[in-house]
Design a protein that fits this description.
By secondary structure, the chain is α+β, with helices and mostly antiparallel strands. The chain has six helices and nine strands.
Length: 254
């Protein structure tokens, strides 16, 4: 995939949208960020509760737990999206995404080191322009790291339970070429759409890919994975740089 033609927004095929993080967006959470992937904006809040689910106590499971919830606020899309509660149940897409977020974060958390605590990760989409699940995972890790630092500083955790960072990005085949980090315009017409979750050390957590009214070749799959690996290396570096600055601020306040 050597095409250099720019996309509708001027990006090269292997170029991420602008990525931003803003800490402390939800002051009552243990740790929180507002993450931006281009025009997509997601509030990611991590709250640590000093208890574990009942099923863990009943089954004698040691350690802590991590769970995630995801929602798109009614005004996050062009047409108002009704709240799930107004329908009386979560829609299938919401359930799928929040399970993905939970699996992605649990892949880099040592639950034994978390102690008898539950780490709640809440991701609420303020503005959707493609990539809400990938932005949620990327921001959720940052929020979780900030939350964990609070407990470390307070002496409520003996050691950091996070074993690595984790981030996610989309890639797809649009107009017969592989491109990275699809926005809504690209996503809605993509021939192939994939979401890839990778740790900071380059280990895959999950690969989701599907042909949208199309099939794709092994070569196209490799091209998508190659684009994603490059994009996720950049995301991991941006997470690390942001956290380094924020944790330094926290250390100065302690």
């Amino acid at each position: 995939m050597s095409e250099t033609k720019t996309r509708h927004d001027g990006r090269a095929p292997d170029q991420l949208r602008s990525v931003t993080f803003e800490a402390g967006i939800a002051p009552h959470a243990t740790g929180s960020v507002l993450v931006g992937f281009g025009r997509t904006r997601v509030i990611c809040a991590a709250t640590i509760e000093p208890k574990v689910p009942g099923w863990m106590r009943q089954q004698g499971v040691k350690g802590g737990w991590l769970t995630a919830e995801y929602s798109m606020l009614p005004y996050s899309t062009l047409d108002r999206k009704p709240r799930d509660i107004s329908r009386g149940k979560l829609d299938g897409r919401t359930v799928e995404i929040q399970r993905l977020i939970g699996r992605s974060l649990r892949a880099v958390v040592d639950l034994d080191k978390l102690g008898e605590n539950t780490l709640w990760v809440d991701c609420d989409v303020l503005q959707a322009d493609g990539g809400t699940r990938t932005a949620s995972i990327t921001g959720a890790y940052v929020a979780a790291r900030l939350a964990v630092q609070q407990l470390l500083d307070q002496g409520k955790l003996a050691e950091n339970p996070l074993t690595d960072s984790v981030a996610a990005i989309s890639a797809g085949i649009c107009d017969s070429r592989a491109v990275l980090d699809l926005d809504y315009v690209e996503d809605k017409d993509a021939e192939v759409d994939a979401n890839i979750v990778i740790t900071g050390r380059g280990q895959f957590v999950e690969v989701q890919g599907s042909g949208e009214e199309s099939t794709f070749s092994p070569e196209q799959l490799q091209a998508l994975l190659g684009l994603a690996a490059g994009g996720l290396k950049s995301l991991a570096a941006q997470q690390a740089a942001f956290l380094s600055a924020e944790l330094l601020k926290i250390a100065k306040r302690v």
